[in-house]
Specification:
The radius of gyration is 19 Å and the shape is globular. With 314 residues, the protein is an alpha/beta fold. It has eight helices and twelve strands. Helix content is 29%, strand content 20%. The strands form two sheets. Strands 1-8-7-10-11-12-5-4-2-3 form a ten-stranded mixed β-sheet, with helices on both faces. A two-stranded antiparallel sheet has the order 6-9. It has a single domain, classed as 3-Layer(aba) Sandwich (Rossmann fold), CATH 3.40.50. α5 (126-133) packs antiparallel against α6.
Length: 314
C-alpha cells in the first residue's frame, strides 16, 4: 500500500528534530534468565510514582507459549512485578495456566497482560495447543477441546469488552493469530518480522499523554524484532503511539516499507481498553526509564485510570 509512504515520511519530518536520541546499548544475542544485577537496574529505572494516582489494581500476566520461546518472557514477568510494586499501582500475579483465562478466575483482575504467547504455526491457536498436549486434558474428546478453547477465548473477549484492560506485549498477538475476533480486538494479526536488528522508534504525536515518557528523548533506538502486522491492522482502527523507521531496514521479504509500521497503539474494545507494545525482544531495552514509564502509562490506560484520546487516527 504505497499510498501510506508519504504519511510515513511526514511522521519522520515531524519528529526528526525533537529531542536527542536515546540509544540502548547493544544486547547480548544469547538471552539469559533475569539476573539480580539486571533486576536491580530495572528497579532503579522504574518510576517511583504512577502518572495517575488511583486505587491499586490487580494485574494478571499470562505467560504461556507453545510455539517460539521468547527468552525474554521471564524478564517481562519481572518488569510488571517491579513496575507494580515500586509505583504502588498494582499487585501482579503471573500464570502459565490457561484456566486462569476462565471467567471465574479472570474476572478477579482489572488488567490482563499477554506476554509473548506465541503459538504453533500454521494453526496459531495456543489454547488448542495446550488442550491437545497437556496431560490433564487427555481425557477430552476433540469436540470437547474445541468447545473449551472457544469458551476460554470468549471469556477473554468478554473480560475486555465488559470494561477491563488488556496489555499485549511483543509476540503475544500470535496467541490466536487466525481468530478474527481476537486479532480485531488486539488491532492486528502477526504477518512476519525481518531479522532482529537496530530499530529506530519515533512518536506519532509527541503531544499525546501516553508518549510523555519520550519527550526530549527521541528517537528511541534499540535492537529488536521489527514486527509487521496485517489483517485488522490494515484498517488501523486504533490510536497509534509509536512507529518504526523502515528506511534502511534489513528486510529480505521487502514488505515492511509498503505502509507505516506502528509498534505501539491503544484502542477501545467494547467498554474496555487495549494497549499494544512491540518493544522489546531483548532484556536490555527494559532497563530504559523511558520504556518502563511508557509501559506503566500504557497499563494505567488499560486499567482506565489514565484518560486520553484513543480515537483511531488513520
Amino acid at each position: 500500500m504505497l499510498k501510506h509512504l508519504p504519511w510515513t515520511f511526514a511522521l519522520w519530518l515531524i519528529t526528526a528534530a525533537v529531542g536527542a536520541a536515546e540509544r540502548i546499548p547493544e544486547p547480548d544475542q544469547k538471552i539469559v534468565p533475569p539476573a539480580p544485577e539486571w533486576e536491580g537496574v530495572v528497579r532503579a529505572a522504574a518510576p517511583a510514582k504512577p502518572t495517575v494516582q488511583a486505587a491499586k489494581r490487580k494485574l494478571l500476566v499470562f505467560s504461556r507459549f507453545t510455539g517460539y520461546d521468547h527468552k525474554v518472557i521471564p524478564h517481562v514477568d519481572r518488569v510488571f512485578q517491579i513496575l507494580g510494586a515500586k509505583s504502588g499501582s498494582f499487585d501482579t500475579t503471573v500464570s502459565v495456566d490457561i484456566e486462569s483465562l476462565a471467567s471465574e478466575s479472570l474476572n478477579a483482575y482489572d488488567v490482563l497482560v499477554l506476554n509473548n504467547n506465541c503459538s504453533k504455526g500454521p494453526r496459531r491457536h495456543l489454547l488448542l495447543d495446550v488442550l491437545e498436549t497437556d496431560s490433564k486434558y487427555q481425557g477430552l474428546t476433540p469436540a470437547e477441546r474445541e468447545k473449551k478453547a472457544n469458551a476460554l477465548e470468549q471469556s477473554l473477549l468478554a473480560f475486555v469488552g465488559g470494561g477491563k484492560g488488556l496489555v499485549v506485549i511483543h509476540g503475544a498477538p500470535t496467541m490466536l493469530n487466525n481468530s478474527k475476533e481476537f486479532t480485531g480486538m488486539v488491532g492486528g494479526a502477526f504477518f512476519y518480522h525481518p531479522p532482529n536488528q537496530e530499530v529506530t522508534v519515533r512518536t506519532v504525536d509527541a503531544s499525546h499523554p501516553l508518549v510523555a515518557a519520550f519527550q526530549g528523548k527521541e528517537p528511541f533506538i534499540h535492537r529488536d524484532e521489527p514486527y509487521c502486522f496485517h489483517g485488522p491492522y490494515e484498517r488501523m482502527e486504533f490510536r497509534p503511539l509509536l512507529f518504526m523507521d523502515t528506511q534502511g531496514l534489513r528486510d529480505p521479504k521487502g514488505e515492511a516499507g509498503k505502509m507505516v509500521r506502528y509498534v505501539a497503539w491503544i484502542k477501545p474494545y467494547g467498554q474496555g481498553r487495549v494497549f499494544y507494545c512491540s518493544p522489546s525482544h531483548f532484556p536490555e531495552s527494559y532497563t530504559s526509564p523511558t520504556l518502563l514509564r511508557f509501559l506503566l502509562d500504557g497499563t494505567q490506560y488499560a486499567s482506565g485510570d489514565l484518560k486520553c484520546d484513543d480515537t483511531p487516527r488513520r
